[in-house]
Amino acid sequence: MIFAGFRQRYFDVLASIYLYNEFRGYTSLDRVLEAVRLRCPDDPAFQAEIEKHRADEHKHYRMFRRWFERQGRMPLVVDRGVGHIDRFIQWVFQCSIDELDTAKIVATPDQFEQLCRVIMLTEQRGYAQVEIILKNRLIMSDPVMKRIFQIVHKDEPDHFLPYQRWLERHGRATARWNERAADWTIHKVLMLAKLPALFLDSGRERMTHWPDEDPAAYAH
Ligand SMILES: [Fe+2]
Ligand SMILES: [Fe+2]
User: What global pTM score does this model have?
Assistant: First the structure.
């Protein structure tokens, strides 16, 4: 009985964090697409890769939403503190994703490259994390979760390779040591502080709206 409660809580926390990050992923990619269409108008292949990336993240979001619906529970309330990309953008650009100045990024080659590297590192981290999850027996004991993470794992290389190849094609560094250090630190904060804190916060409320239906869902 205690184990059943622990297990359910663990899944709720994991799925709530994933749901947030998938939602943040596909909605933020709209901003990136806007920048790429302006910066690389003659590179429709690159644009198509990012459109596919967005479609995948949207699909992932729907899979986690569906998982909660099957459970008959809503996700736990979380905020951008659990968002890897939110923390990374804040670190590199000193602003939130919503405050990113697309026009400035497009006009400043260094910033555009930085944005590509931030997305590439975030997605590489996501891929490595899914590999760990696929070896986790507790998570794999839920057949629907198992299927979700197998699909995510299959999609994930298409999410960092376009940015990596773009940087390589243009002779740009694919990552700087300080960006790798930022990525590593953010990951540790999420895994060692945010995730356990959410797990232990028994009074944590559940969301009342789905973020794809209500833009303010994460603010309720
Ligand atoms: Fe995803
Ligand atoms: Fe991804």
Answer: 0.93
Q: Which ligand ends up closest to the CA of 18?
A: 1
Q: 117 with 163: CB under 8 angstroms?
A: yes
Cα of 37 from ligand 2 centre, angstroms:
20
Q: What angle do CA 150, 187, 157 make, to 5 degrees?
A: 35
Cβ density class 126-136: b for 16+ within 10 Å, e for less: bbebbeebeee
What is the C-alpha to C-alpha distance for residues 161 and 25, in angstroms, rounded to an integer? 16
Measured from the alpha carbon of residue 152, the closest ligand is 1
Say how many Å lie between the CA of residue 196 and the centre of ligand 2: 23
The tens digit of pLDDT for each residue in 35-90 reads 899 888 999 999 999 999 999 999 999 999 999 999 999 999 999 999 999 999 99
Distance of CA 2 from the midpoint of ligand 1 (Å): 31
Distance from residue 152's CA to the centre of ligand 1 (Å): 6
| 76 φ/ψ angles, rounded to the nearest 5 degrees | -70, 150
Task: Give the closest ligand to the alpha carbon of residue 119.
Answer: 2
